[in-house]
Input
Amino acid sequence: MGMIKAGAIAKGTYLLEKNEPFVVAEREFVNPGKGSAFVRLKLKNLRSAAVLKVTHKSQDNCEEIDVDEVESQFLYSDGTNYHFMDSTTFDQFEVPMKAHENAQYYMLEGETFKLTRWNEETLDIRLPPKKDLLVAEAEEAVKGDTVTGATKYVITETNLKVKVPIFIKQGEKIRVNVESGEYQERIND
Amino acid sequence: MYRGIRDFFDRCGYLEVDTPLLTDSPIPESHIELFQTRRIQPDGTSYPLYLIPSPEIWLKMALASGSSSLFQIGRCFRNGEQMDKWHRNEFTMLEWYGVDKTAGDNLIVMQEIIEVAAGSVNSEAGEEVSGVIRKISMEEAFREFAGFSLESALEESGLSEINRASSGYPSALAEVSDIFRNRLKEKKLPTGEMEKESAADLFHRIFLTFVEEALPADRPLAITHWPAFIPTLARNIPETPWADRWELYIRGVEVANCYGEETDEKLLKKYWEDESPDKTNPDFRWPQLIAGGMPPCSGTAVGLDRLLALVRGDNNLKGLDLFPIHDSMLR
Output
């Protein structure tokens, strides 16, 4: 466990607050001008996914979690847990889905991810910023509907519902922003 | 926008001034980091000069020397800032002083400045930017969002009867600090090293955690009546624990700060003493000069980059960065 000044905390830093592990989702500096500098943090609890907002003085000491990064293969999910296998030791382990619900839409069976581990507990699944996914279900575009900016919803191979331009067809690949879940572009392999 | 603001002040009879960016003796503000440089004399010896964090010192000097109401639009420099959404090391500030005006009078001027700014960019921003400024006192804000009366805390500690120069002041401050600490503990907040913290820091902890983020943002909002124990150059409203001061927020972003100015020499000196980096050797030239002749007046400082970004409907200052500097580029 290391100490870190609140002013040095960045988005993605792992912190221990009230004995619970958190990752920093948002960080904002606040200078009241006539007072000390403060940092306002939005933290995500890595066990419950609950959000905690805290304000620290830049000079406050916070507890940073020293995490290990482990390359692991995603095997499958059983609806409650994700099952992974450590790529080096071949040990298999589970990660509760509850804390990382978003990950299910961006992991395909057999793919390898970096996992953040701390005391035998998986804190975080490092997802790429963008992910290319196959469109599994798409409605046909209505003929004659050529209004610019028209959109529709499709379902990807990972069961993610995405709002896309009307020209996207079933079986095509689209690039999705993992953080926002928004469509970015069509991928032509 | 700049042209519109200049025209506005010109019509109102304000004098535009253009004061130096370098000074050898800035107003001490313990929370502002300065950019320091050195003046090298022809004989090779040198002494430090600082880039101004605001033109305040010069404008007050001009007022103390008999100037009428005046304004300046100019660059200001603050070191140690994070270059994030709403902070830059270098920015443009509008600062104006209305002689014989109060902070309340300047709020009316502020409304007009927003209108000028919005008009200059054909802003399509709505009520949240150009609506009528909503006034809320710090006491109202605390009752509503922090769940307790700040005024009672200040009265309980005795801060409503005494000022910065009184002998009982430090113990009253310690008392109000205890009240704040207990409030923070009740809310189970991360306490940091609170035992050592000043009353102003504890106040800001509560303000930033519970109040600032909860403020309504559907119209511009001015928080008035700040606690006088926060060390500033705003005057005390007599017989109250409040300073004649407001801060303006637009869409939750702090845009302007206004004081009814302190002109009492004893209190000015006390401020200089408390805030000077070298407490044993404060530079007392300014308080003497200012107090000597400064008329009753109110001054307002506006971050023009922020105002412009907000009336444009931007969510940060990026759209105004012509030549951005990033720490990572230069490191």
